[in-house]
Amino acid sequence: MKKALITGITGQDGSYLAEFLLEKGYDVHGVIRRSSVDYRERIAHLEGHPHFHLHYGDLSDSMSILSVVSTVRPDEIYNLAAQSHVQVSFDVPEFTADVDATGVLRVLEAVRLSGLKDTCRIYQASTSELYGKVEEVPQNENTPFHPYSPYAVAKQYGFWIVKEYREAYNMFCCSGILFNHESERRGETFVTRKITLAAARIAQGKQDKLYLGNLSSLRDWGYARDYVECMWLILQNDKPEDFVIATGEQHSVREFCQLAFHDVGIELEFVGEGMNEKGIDKATGKTVIEVSPDFYRPTDVVNLWGDPSKAKRELGWNPTKTTFEQLVKIMVDHDMKKVAVERAEEHIKTNLAEYLEKGVIK
């Protein structure tokens, strides 16, 4: 039985990867940070599985990473942990650099110092944000990097230190350059989940309006559940190489909004341009989407579009197993149910409070 160690196992990708590897017959170990707040909802259903184990550690703490790696002695490591929000990286650039850049080095050194450099294969979660102010469309493994945020700059160090350890120590370590990958497990502060939740809440009368940044930003959006398969395939390859993981299709934030709102029964019409653009419900004439300067970044990437030809050709991976339309619907359906449950819970609490006040129940 192979052993896999996943950092960032409580995240969207980590939870899907853990499920995928357990189905493949792996003994799965995950690294989690100690917190007084429970943030394990994505992996709660896996706890208690005989081949699922959790260890405390943090990418900012080299000793904890070394301890976990030397104890587990994994066959494969998937380094998915990161401060992964681009906007937040402008607010906490030093923390972002410590985790997203130096954290990668700590993982590589832990493997080397544990005497596993010849047996352990390492996957590093890289990002399309490396291309930043893009110099070529679409972007592939040979496209020059032009990082355009503290997050992207930190991730560029991670990419190059993986390449350096591969060449200097002959380690099997690779980077997957993932383009935007979304799912119903995506954090609620990310734009796609923000849109699907808002669509569900507006449709059910729980929210009036959605505020967004640049509606014309173009992204290559795929389904995270599909992308973890490619992560695994990269480590099963005969030789360590870096791969772009993308769908090869491009859509705007505006298109994502139109589909999401369509799936909840609201047809949108966009009027105006730039900061004055608005999304209007055709049926009611009500403005449900507005642009806010608060969601514009100091430097913004506007045109990400990946070329997954290498992954398709060399790994046999299908990047469009789930279509863009299916992805949006999966997320919307999930959030419609989530909002319905929230409404039901609020109704119960309201009724309970009224009954207590009237003395109907004690």
What does this structure look like?
It is a single chain. The longest helix is centred in the C-terminal third of the chain and has 35 residues, at 324-358. The termini are far apart. The mean pLDDT is 94. The protein folds into two domains: 1-177, Rossmann fold (3-Layer(aba) Sandwich), CATH 3.40.50; 189-217 and 249-302 and 321-356, UDP-galactose 4-epimerase, domain 1. It is an alpha/beta fold and 362 residues long. The strands form four sheets. Strands 3-2-1-4-5-6-11 form a seven-stranded parallel sheet, with helices on both faces. The protein has a four-stranded mixed sheet with strand order 8-15-14-13, covered by helices on one side. The protein has ten helices and 15 strands.
Which properties best describe this structure?
362 residues; alpha/beta; Rossmann fold; UDP-galactose 4-epimerase, domain 1; 7-stranded parallel sheet; 4-stranded mixed sheet; 15 strands; 41% helix; globular
Give a short summary of the structure.
The protein is α/β, with parallel strands linked by helices and 362 residues long.
